[in-house]
């Protein structure tokens, strides 16, 4: 079996849910619901591509970005250099020290629903993207090392697609099942 390229597994940017960076988070969530209903998706996309006024993709909003925006104290922690592998004691200490999730979920949702997407979107550095021509091995390595998911795909400096971990997993699953023992 040949080693597939990123372009073969990515979802083209045109097919992904996209919102303007000036949109509110609530408008963005409505876009996700609408896209899921229009396309009959049982599990619609959970991430959004963010575009500028010219329609160029400039970033993404993931589930994790949304959760972090609901509890602003996470942004304070980002500058403290906390370890990437967290011991249970450390997690509990940070939870208490920063008074995380102390407000009811409804209150937190009300606070972030009107936020502009550009306030919480992730603008990936070139090192956080893969090329359409990269091997799936390279993309999988990026996922395993903890790159902000999903990975944006580029070609000639323009974002052309989205590569999700689940899509790579399906390719790997098929390859494993095709092996003769």
Counted beta strands: 7
CATH superfamily: CBS-domain
For the largest beta sheet, what order do the strands appear in spatially? 1-7-6-5
Alpha plus pi helix count: 9
Rg measurement, Å: 18 Å
- The assigned CATH architecture is Roll
The low-confidence runs, each spanning 5 or more residues with pLDDT under 50, are: none
Q: How many strands, what sense, and barrel or not for the largest sheet? A: 4 strands, mixed
Q: Proportion of β residues?
A: 15-25%
The CATH class assignment is Alpha Beta
Mean pLDDT: 83
- Write the CATH fold name: CBS-domain
Helix coverage percent of residues? 40-55%
What is the total number of structural domains? 1
Order of helices and strands: HEEHEEHHHHHEHEEH
- The secondary-structure class comes to alpha/beta
End-to-end separation: 16 Å
* Rough outline: globular
What does this protein structure show overall?
It is a single chain. This protein is α/β, with parallel strands linked by helices. The protein has one domain (6-178): CBS-domain, CATH 3.10.580. It has nine helices and seven strands. It has helices at residues 6-9, 25-38, 63-70, 73-78, 88-97, 105-113, 117-120, 136-144, 165-178; strands at 11-12, 18-20, 48-51, 57-61, 129-131, 151-155, 158-163. It has a four-stranded mixed sheet with strand order 1-7-6-5. The chain has a three-stranded mixed sheet with strand order 2-3-4. The longest helix has 14 residues, at 25-38. The chain is globular, with a radius of gyration of 18 Å.
How would you concisely characterize the structure shown here?
It is built from nine helices and seven strands. The chain has helices at residues 6-9, 25-38, 63-70, 73-78, 88-97, 105-113, 117-120, 136-144, 165-178, and strands at 11-12, 18-20, 48-51, 57-61, 129-131, 151-155, 158-163.
């Amino acid at each position: 079996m040949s080693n597939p390229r990123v372009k073969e597994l990515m979802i083209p940017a045109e097919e992904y849910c996209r919102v303007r960076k000036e949109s509110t988070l609530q408008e963005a969530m409505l876009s996700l619901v609408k896209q899921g209903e229009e396309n009959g998706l049982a599990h619609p996309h959970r991430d959004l591509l963010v575009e500028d006024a010219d329609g160029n993709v400039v970033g993404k909003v993931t589930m994790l970005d949304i959760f972090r925006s609901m509890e602003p104290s996470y942004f304070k922690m980002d500058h403290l250099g906390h370890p990437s592998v967290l011991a249970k004691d450390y997690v509990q200490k940070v939870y208490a020290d920063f008074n995380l999730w102390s407000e009811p979920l409804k209150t937190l949702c009300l606070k972030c629903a009107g936020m502009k997407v550009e306030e919480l979107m992730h603008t990936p550095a070139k090192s956080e993207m893969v090329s359409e021509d990269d091997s799936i091995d390279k993309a999988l390595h990026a996922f395993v090392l903890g790159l902000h998911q999903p990975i944006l795909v580029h070609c000639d400096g323009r974002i052309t697609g989205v590569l999700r971990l689940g899509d790579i997993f399906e390719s790997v699953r098929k390859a494993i099942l095709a092996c003769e023992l």
